[in-house]
């Protein structure tokens, strides 16, 4: 799964700590998601979707073989 999280965070001028507070997760969780080492829960994905006003599918891009 690819993610646009880092790009979207930069667009909003948020650092990882600020975003983590808004999403109610640790900064390390944001870092892991950005490095594509952690697949977030649906709840976390929905929170990110609301913060960035983007559909979940525009934040997280699934490769065909992953589906």
From TrEMBL:
Xref: InterPro entries: Cro/C1-type_HTH (IPR001387), Lambda_DNA-bd_dom_sf (IPR010982)
Keyword DNA-binding: yes
Residues annotated as domain HTH cro/C1-type: 5-59
Keyword Hydrolase: no
Keywords annotated in UniProt: DNA-binding
Alphabetical list of Pfam families matching this protein: HTH_3
Name of this chain's protein: Transcriptional regulator
Species name: Salinicoccus halitifaciens
């Amino acid at each position: 799964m690819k993610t646009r999280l880092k790009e979207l965070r930069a667009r909003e001028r948020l650092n990882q700590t600020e975003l983590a507070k808004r999403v109610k997760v640790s900064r390390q969780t944001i870092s892991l998601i950005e490095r594509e080492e952690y697949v977030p829960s649906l709840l976390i994905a929905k929170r990110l979707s609301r913060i960035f006003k983007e559909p979940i599918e525009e934040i997280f891009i699934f490769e065909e073989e992953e589906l």
